[in-house]
Amino acid sequence: MGRYVIRRLLQMIPVFIGSTFLIFFMVYALGDPVAALFGDKAPDPATAARIRHDLYLDQPLWKQYLHYMGQIFQGDFGTAFNGQKVTELLAAAYPVTLRLTLVAIVIELIVGVTLGVVSGLRRGRAVDSSVLILTLIVISVPTFVTGYVLQFLFGVKWDVIRPTVSPDAPFGELILPGIVLALVSLAYVTRLTRTSIAENVRADYVRTAVAKGLPRRRVITRHLLRNSLIPVITFIGTDIGSLMGGAIVTEKIFNIHGVGYQIYQGILRNNAPTVVGFVTILVIVFLLANLLVDLLYAVLDPRIRYA
Amino acid sequence: MTSMEIKTGSAPSSRSGGDDSGALLDVRDLHVEFHTRDGVVKAVNGVNYNVSSGETLAVLGESGSGKSVTAQAIMGIVDMPPGKIPQGEILFRGQDMLKMSNEERRKIRGSKIAMIFQDALSSLNPVLSVGYQLGEMFRVHEGMSRKQAKAKAVELMERVKIPAAKDRVNDFPHQFSGGMRQRIMIAMALALEPDLIIADEPTTALDVTVQAQVMDLLAELQQEYNMGLILITHDLGVVADVADKIAVMYAGRIVETAPVHELYKRPAHPYTRGLLDSIPRLDQKGQELYAIKGLPPNLLHVPSGCPFNPRCPKAQDICRTEVPPLVPVTEQDGTDLPGRGSACHFWEETIHG
Questions:
Q1: Which A residues 15-54 touch B at CB under 8 Å?
Q2: Domain span at residue B331?
Q3: Contact state of B188 with A212 under an 8 Å Cβ cutoff
């Protein structure tokens, strides 16, 4: 197991280098960051040249990249256009997104798995069909529609919650955005669990568990669910990765100052240091989340052993 | 009711039903059918058999003859729906289990009647340690703690002769060999010392030497605990060694019953004769092996009359119209042959001819 983890961590290095270089390349290829810095006004050529020199922008791209990487490993992600350190932005945005992710994942797991188990055990009956139709609707409706509709209904019309989230983003205010964010994944979790349960319920070991005289509840939770959740966990794991990447649409709708919001602003203003800094961290989060899923596999299924 | 009982046990009037008075398990006129999209599959059509403590009944038949479904109906693990038991009784110690509540039946499963399944690899839960799966019996039925249950699990594994049981109790099913896994299945069935064990082709997935070991172990443990055993198999060799009596099934019916050695000596049904003739024999080396022609009937459309008639070398007109009841088989002079019965219109010619 230890060797496997080390090998995987080493494999991350080329992936990390490759993906960050691509991001770096694309962001800088998009436009002149110095021009973007001055907004609509045209910069004084001498000032522009000085800024270019200060920011290493007069160097070839590969040198810029190496320099940037060197700085990152010293903990310096550069400075955003408004003079804020990117690290500060990261420190402010990540806890918010983390909380939002947590709310979304908990909802996905509890509601998704429960619905999946119920419909999987009653395959082909009314409950199953209605759950299937419901998930189909949820999958088909884009997030910005559900987001705005729920925000309008709960926040404006019925006045149950605040329509937008305050800057501290406490858990209470993140519940509705969490639901909106979870909805699509929740539908997938439900369907995945349902299929898995419906397949495993006919398995021989479930029959054995029944023949042992175990109560139905125990058969389902200990024997059936444990086996059926393996694919679901994989999905949830990768979903954590993508949710941590910030939900640009959801965060925008509810004015949550998380990762997605920052990236959105960064892209909008061609604010290269912010975008590259955030996406670099995202790459790491994604890689780690994937490793975690693979390790979790071995915990859930003893037949999988990593040498 | 034209069919007869295999062995008329004394009427189960007393509820306590001591081990020796009357049958432990008495299946009466059991029907099981499955309602599928293509129609009603009649898997079991009026099966009667009984088992007493310490006795081994072998149920013999091809795939799809209803032997496993009968066993599952006894265990109460037939999926309903699509399964349905339209008529019949399953008396366990004189009480009809089909009339019991689900909770009452659950308490019998595993503790009073246990089942050994065919393929131990798929029948054991792949993600739980064998110690956990064995211990679960004690934890659920006897309320033991996790620790006590594990100690009991080790004891059980030693009981079925698994080497280094203590070290292996936390291993997972895939880490055991096929024979060892089947021993674990046996240990699990044996855990609460049930009165009756149903073994559904316990040795089919094993190689021949291991088959013998597993069967010997099963027979030994059965003797020791004085359990009733229903052995479901299609292996006539296995049956000869351990069974006391045999019920041969075909298309969801019992076509012949007999004490084990009598069946081999003088079969009273053409189907049984066909089965016996298709055993490879050393003295017929080099000759073509006999096979019963045709295929087992589709249970959606069981042939009218005797279900075996399309494959029977002796079939007459009556066989195509009338279902033969299971009638007592006697000697030519009319003396009783206890425990023998045949569901063939021409049983007399078959056994004596």
A1: none
A2: 256-281+297-352
A3: yes
Closest residue in B to A215 (Cα) is B106
pLDDT tens for B152-201 read 899 889 888 888 888 898 999 999 988 888 889 888 988 888 999 998 88
Please check the confidence at residue B268 and state whether its pLDDT lies above 50.
yes
> Chain B residues with CB inside 8 Å of A209's CB?
125
Instruction: Output the pTM of the full model.
Output: 0.79
A213 → closest Cβ in B107, B123, B172: B107
Whether the CB of A205 is below 8 Å from some CB of chain B: the reply is yes
**CB-CB: which of A204, A215, A300 is closest to B117?**
A204
Q: Do A208 and B136 touch (CB under 8 A)?
A: no
Residues B266 and B131 in one domain: no
Considering the domain architecture, whether residues A64 and A120 belong to the same structural domain is answered as: no
Cα(A43)–Cα(A53) distance, integer angstroms = 15
A148 plus A240 within the same structural domain: yes
Q: Which of B27, B20, B75, B26 is nearest to B53 (CA)?
A: B20
Q: Are residues A167 and A254 in the same domain?
A: yes
**Does residue B227 sit in the same domain as residue B103?**
yes
Going from the C-alpha of B141 to that of each of B109, B124, B135, B248, the distances in angstroms are: 10, 19, 10, 35
Its domain, for residue A19, covers 2-73
Q: Which of residues 268-327 of B touch A (CB under 8 A)?
A: none
Q: Is residue A306 part of a domain?
A: no
Same domain (yes/no): B82, B174: yes
Using N-to-C axis directions, what is the helix angle for A259-268 and A272-300, rounded to 10°?
A: 150
**Does residue B37 lie within any of the structural domains?**
yes
Q: Can you list the alpha helix ranges (DSSP code H) found in chain A? A: 2-30, 33-37, 45-54, 61-73, 86-107, 113-121, 126-140, 143-150, 171-200, 204-211, 216-218, 226-244, 248-253, 259-268, 272-300
Minimal-distance CA residue of chain A relative to B198: A211
% of chain A at pLDDT higher than 70: 98
For the stretch A258-291, pLDDT in tens is 888 888 888 888 788 888 888 888 888 888 888 8
- Put simply, whether B204 touches A (Cβ < 8 Å) is no
Count of domains in chain A? 2
Q: Find the closest chain A residue to B175 by CA distance.
A: A303
- Report how many domains make up chain B: 2
